[in-house]
Design goal:
The protein is α+β, with helices and mostly antiparallel strands. The chain has one domain (2-334): Anthranilate synthase (4-Layer Sandwich), CATH 3.60.120.10. The protein has helices at 72-87, 112-122, 173-191, 230-237, 248-258, 315-334; strands at 2-4, 7-16, 27-32, 38-48, 67-68, 93-103, 129-133, 138-142, 147-152, 155-159, 161-165, 200-210, 213-223, 245-246, 269-274, 279-284, 288-292, 300-309. The protein has an 18-stranded antiparallel β-sheet that branches. The model has no long low-confidence stretch (mean pLDDT 95).
Length: 340
């Protein structure tokens, strides 16, 4: 099943990794791992259905059982290393991320859709949703605030986030500069697949309020060129620029060297495509949980968090930003924070 935007999709018809299928017909749920694994699932039925309360089907991990792929010392050392790359002229900005993991105590109470319900009540988000395909290794609950791609016919738009603080007053000049830098990257990405002269920036560095924090958000849009479809669009824009860095190729090389765990659905893409209506909404897979059942009877819950690093970054402040982004959601998943 899949749940996005108050709609529930059921009756799995087929699953493919071919993005060209999204140009065909039907309603699809899409999960695109940061490392490149694409899962497109088509469903027979889509109906209005709000997120469930979540309490019955979910027993979260012990709050003290979470472990991070990078601890504070390793993360701050990584920030300093990225600043060295910047000083050497190899990159302007790079995202440094870590993956948090905790064991789930009861396999029978680890329904990812129930976790989506808890997140909907405790941390409402514009691109929240679920994809539950355990037979295909996909169990994702996202409370993403960030738009990766929206399609309405041939019009495509993206909403990169760069700049995070507890309040608007916490945002620094570094945050605005970082946002503009990534907007330029997204413009270039969309320009590879959109008609010449159609890529615009309707909104730049708008402050958006979300539970417990604020973000700087911009909007970039354009018109797909003739003959370009989902394959070309993914090829031009994935992974999302806001969670990689600029230049993207250099940032990806640095990320691979510094991060010690695969990101999986985190920082990838998750959402839906309605091929019949020519509409789609895919979020950047941030504020996202996923379940790993590789070991029978011992499911693991993962959650990713990170920050964009520039020359103006302070290593301790960047660590604190990853804590800010993770704290509320991890508490909800662990059952230690309720909706406010």
């Amino acid at each position: 099943m899949a749940r996005f935007g108050g709609r529930l999709a059921t009756g799995l018809r087929d699953v493919t990794s071919d993005p060209a299928a999204l140009e065909g017909e039907g309603y699809w749920a899409v999960a695109y791992d940061f490392e490149g694994r694409l899962t497109c699932a088509r469903f027979d039925s889509v109906r209005p259905d709000p997120a469930p309360p979540g309490t019955a089907g979910w027993l979260g991990p012990d709050p003290g059982s979470w472990r991070s792929s990078l601890d504070r010392a390793a993360y701050t050392a990584g920030v300093r290393r990225i600043r060295e790359h910047i000083a050497a002229g190899e990159v302007y900005q790079a995202n440094l991320c870590r993956v948090m993991t905790a064991p789930l105590p009861d396999p029978d109470r680890s329904d990812i859709d129930a976790l989506t319900g808890l997140l909907a009540h405790g941390n409402p988000a514009p691109y929240a949703g679920t994809i539950r395909l355990p037979g295909h290794g996909v169990e994702i609950a996202t409370a993403s605030p960030e738009l990766y791609l929206r399609r309405r016919g041939r019009t495509v738009s993206s909403g990169p986030i760069k700049g995070t603080g507890r309040t608007e007053h916490d945002l620094l000049e570094k945050d605005h500069a970082e946002n503009v830098m990534i907007v330029d990257l997204v413009r270039n990405d969309l320009g590879r697949v959109c008609a010449t002269g159609t890529v615009t920036v309707p909104d730049l560095c708008v402050v958006e309020k979300h539970p417990g924090l604020v973000h700087l958000v911009s909007t970039v849009e354009g018109e797909l060129r003739e003959g370009a479809g989902w394959g070309e669009l993914f090829g031009a824009t994935f992974p999302p620029g806001s969670v990689t860095g600029a230049p993207k190729s250099s940032a990806l090389r640095i990320i691979e060297a510094l991060e010690t765990a695969p990101r999986g659905p985190y920082c990838g893409a998750v959402g839906w495509v309605d091929a019949d209506r020519g509409e789609a909404e895919l979020a950047v897979g941030i504020r996202t949980f996923w379940i790993d059942r590789a070991e029978p009877g011992r499911p693991l819950l993962h959650f990713g968090t990170g920050a964009g690093i520039t020359w103006g970054s302070d290593p301790e402040r960047e660590w604190d930003e990853t804590e800010l982004k993770a704290g509320r959601l991890v508490a909800i998943a662990s059952g230690t924070e309720q909706a406010s």
